[in-house]
């Protein structure tokens, strides 16, 4: 499962550290930018089970979860605009297959609904799983992000097996900064691409620091 983390370069040392360390950061979900995070609607149904007890268990489960957000594609204009300093930043590519298979964390696509997450709390799952389903559901207004989430039971750094697979630099990034990123990644055998915008949409091409004229190879 490929996923992309969009970053600004306002702290270049921090971004280079992400490439070097192969770590991502899992934060408290309450601090994410969607004010509707963690909200859900439940159908009590006709069962006699203690609904409040289940709701309390879901609340406890959410408190013990930490989130890292990525996107399923590199070519999402709004992600570049919002999270990569209006195309002056970059996108780090990760392969989350081994992390997902390890079972140490939950890795999944976010599902989008017209309203907040809704469940039959007696039928859908146990409270621990419901807590994760709540955090894997967002309202439709966020669907353009095509988000992939890592949900961990620990806050802070999370080592990603295989580390950064590639770096895509924005087309507005300063040339001298592109050179720094390329040199740093080249020394670590990390491919560097450059974002291309044209009449056919958005794509990326292998970055060649020696190419000043002509087209690079489209991928």
Task: Specify Rg, calculated over alpha carbons.
Answer: 20 Å
Please estimate the helix content.
Answer: 25-40%
SS field, number of helical segments:
6
Structural class: alpha+beta
The averaged pLDDT comes out at 86
Low-confidence runs of at least 5 consecutive residues: 213-217
Main sheet: strands, sense, barrel? 5 strands, mixed
Strand segment tally: 14
As a percent range, the share of strand residues is: 25-35%
Report the end-to-end length measured between terminal Cα atoms: 18 Å
User: What is the strand arrangement across the widest sheet?
Assistant: 1-5-12-13-14
The shape, in one word, is elongated
Helix and strand run: EHEEHEHEHEEEHEEEEHEE
Describe the oligomeric state of these chains in a short phrase: single chain
What does this structure look like?
The protein is built from 6 helices and 14 strands. It is an alpha+beta fold and about 220 residues long. A 5-stranded mixed beta sheet has the order 1-5-12-13-14, with helices on both faces. The protein has a 5-stranded antiparallel beta sheet with strand order 6-10-4-2-11. The chain has a two-stranded parallel ribbon with strand order 3-8. It is elongated. The C terminus is likely disordered.
